[in-house]
Amino acid sequence: MTDFAADREAMVERQLRRRGITRQPILDAFLAVPREAFIGAEYAHRAYGDHPLPIEAGQTISQPYIVALMIEAAGIKPGDKVLEVGAGSGYAAAVISRIAGKVIGIERQHDLVEVARERLQRLGCDNVIIVEGDGTKGCPDEAPFDAILAAASGSHVPNALLDQLADGGKIVMPLGSPGWVQELVRVTKRPDGTVDRENLGGVRFVPLIGEEGWKDA
Ligand code: SAM
Q1: Which helix (H) or strand (E) segment is 177 a member of?
Q2: DSSP 3-state assignment of 198?
């Protein structure tokens, strides 16, 4: 089997560190997780390219830099409980699991839930739970969360996610219409319950589909 360790190190150096991702726990997490294990064998040779790639159910595994940017923006640290909406292949959840205490990944596509669980189990990511369902409703049984990341773009920050965010916690998610450049936003919940919102730049994500997202086409 091909050893991708050198490609992974080059990706971390060129795509992450040189672009300003400098927190060592984040870089270490990307060095520890084999991205090739989360995509089909036909794409393995492109696993460390600077781009998203197709996965099952017509979805995508996100560009490594964007995953890193979101983790950094959310300030994820050891011991945190993190919700990832749109777990897809399970890759981002695996990376986050190397930094945080516990990760709950929600995915609406049944086929992806099955493969993500299997991959995460095989890699020994035993602090990740993949839940099947509509992530715009969050995961009330596991709330509150120190950080919430959404890997799909909505029209607004779902109220359920704001309700399930711990005081001082952060939501990082793309907002905007499918097919257009969207705005990556960071929402921080202040201790008095009010929120602070910052724009972090333009991104492109698949649509967030659900009760507090876009309607299924
Ligand atoms: N983080 C993923 C990875 O590492 O592979 C990237 C996933 S992809 C960019 C976004 C995912 O969001 C898709 O798998 C899609 O099915 C899922 N999705 C869209 N709307 C959702 C919702 N309301 N709840 C849960 N998952 C959703």
Answers
A1: none
A2: strand
Measured CA to CA, the distance from residue 187 to residue 173 in angstroms comes to 9
Atom of ligand 1 nearest to the CA of 61: 5
pLDDT tens digits for 101-131?
999 999 999 999 999 999 999 999 999 999 9
Q: Which atom of ligand 1 is nearest to the CA of 95?
A: 4
Domain coverage including residue 102: 52-203
Given a cut of 50, the residues of the chain with pLDDT beneath it are none
The C-alpha torsion from 61 through 62 and 65 to 66, rounded to 10°, is -160
Give residues with Cβ within 8 angstroms of 150, minimum separation 6: 84, 85, 86, 135, 161, 171, 172, 173, 174, 208
Task: Give the whole-angstrom CA distance, residue 181 versus residue 205.
Answer: 8
Q: Which residue's CA lies nearest to atom 7 of ligand 1?
A: 88
CATH code (residue 80): 3.40.50.150
Is 82 domain-assigned?
Answer: yes
Whether 62 is catalytic is: yes
